[in-house]
Amino acid sequence: MTDPDTMIACAKPATPAAGRITVRKLWPHEREAYIAHLLRLEPEARRWRFGMTMTNAALRAYAGRSFCVGGLVHACCVDGVVRATGELQGLLDFPRQHGEAAFSVEKGWRRQGIGSRLFAAVLLSARNRGMSVLDVMCHPDNLAMKALARRHGVTLQLLYGETHGLARLDISTPSSLLTEALANTTSAFGAFLDAQTCYSQR
Ligand SMILES: CC(C)(COP(=O)(O)OP(=O)(O)OC[C@H]1O[C@@H](n2cnc3c(N)ncnc32)[C@H](O)[C@@H]1OP(=O)(O)O)[C@@H](O)C(=O)NCCC(=O)NCCS
Prior knowledge:
By secondary structure, the chain is of the alpha+beta class. 43% of the residues lie in helices and 24% in strands. Bound molecules: coenzyme A. The site of coenzyme A has 22 residues, from helix 3, strand 4, helix 5 and helix 6.
């Protein structure tokens, strides 16, 4: 019998399609959609994303904590299904100066600029929450993540066998706050449409 995690992960075929794309923040009640996305990542992508082998149970436990330990998750949804995420951690730290970011895009949706859109969204959120530095860590062989970070002006450095990327953030301005506020408004509508799409596909 197929285990429940595999059933969730396989519920939607991973075929790229020109569907309706929304880039928005996930709400805590969308945790299951986040988990399903992480479960669909192939073993190599899981290792790249977390820096270690992750079992389904470990992914579930991780995603279960993501929203309640000062995390904020931006997602790219295609026809209501979460296909990529950019996670910002460090919101509960005091002083809140240093954030950490991590990204995952499902196979089939990579190299289409989705990682870049999520990176920009995470940078803006970190800046608007008073952070001055954003840290992105990856394996030195992770060419995709290194290219993505460089594209956003991140300086990369090899430290203790890991590549550390540091993005220096400007202080927030009325314009940066307004940009995020407007994105929130659009994303609330996007979340509604995503919920409606998922519901109608049941
Ligand atoms: C890293 C990752 C998030 C990139 O997402 P993506 O949606 O493919 O990225 P984009 O399409 O926005 O591409 C961004 C840049 O990276 C480059 N890039 C993407 N994949 C690449 C690859 N395999 N090799 C070299 N460069 C690559 C793109 O050409 C682009 O550079 P450009 O703007 O100079 O043309 C995605 O590959 C992924 O999820 N990998 C598995 C998980 C992971 O490695 N996470 C990172 C650890 S935090």
